[in-house]
Amino acid sequence: MTRDVNARESPTARFSDRPASGWVDQEVRLVAYDHTWPVRFEAEAALLEGAIGPWVTGGIHHVGSTAMPGMTAKPIIDILVGVEDLPTSVPCVELLEPLGYVYAPYLPEVMHWFCKPDPARRTHHLHLVPTDSGRYRDELDFRDTLRADPATAQAYAELKQDLAQRFRQDREAYTAGKTGFVAEVLGRAVGDDSVFGGA
After folding, report:
1. Would you write out the chain's pLDDT as a tens digit for each of its 199 residues?
2. φ, ψ for residue 160 (rounded to 5)?
């Protein structure tokens, strides 16, 4: 996947299905859990609040594997920000640039997705997602389920290790390989009052 990260264009022009030339993906690399990940999230959340606070309607959340204590993960802090909707949060694209975020047209009909500082060397992923969407609820529900269920978390870690070995140079295949597991976990979570309070 390629994109010219130096191209200057309007924010709305960036929202396409396909990245442009110049985008180079980072290989899939998993590491042991790092106890500094929550601290790094809190520091980044403060920066985000200062930059795009007026657009935040559903909080700033640490999600993904680095948000699950003890989980093997890619060393990238995943951050979910709840916004009112996608059209009105377009100004955030420009506002996030000084923080080093690069917009990428990944699922543009679902969220505004960014990586930092560069597609080939990532430290953070950022998802701006409408708070009334299934995607927003799913990201939080999946995190909370694995935090509460060590057996499911272990199964997920083992799956990721297998996929990382097979698809080190293919992030799309690595991500696709987790889809069935994620769907199964979220399916079980629906209506589970003990974990999600009936959400």
Report:
1. 333 333 334 344 444 433 444 556 778 999 999 999 999 999 999 999 999 999 999 999 999 999 999 999 999 999 999 999 999 999 999 999 999 999 998 899 999 999 999 888 899 999 999 999 999 999 999 999 999 999 999 999 999 999 999 998 898 899 999 999 999 999 987 654 433 222 2
2. -65, -40
Fold of 12-196: Beta Polymerase; domain 2 (3.30.460)
Among residues 126, 176, 115, 185, which one has the least CA distance to residue 156?
185
Residues in CB range of 88: below 8 A, 6 or more apart: 55
Distance CA 60, CA 55 (A): 11
Question: For the chain, how many residues are written?
Answer: 199
Helix axis angle, 134-148 relative to 179-189, nearest 10°? 90
Domains of the chain, by residue range, sit at 12-196
Phi, psi of 136 (to 5 degrees): -60, -50
All residues at 6 or more sequence positions from 168 whose CB lies less than 8 Å from its CB, including other chains:
27, 28, 29
**Which pTM does this prediction carry?**
0.83
Residues with Cβ < 8 Å from 55, sequence gap 6 or more?
81, 83, 84, 88, 89, 91, 92, 128
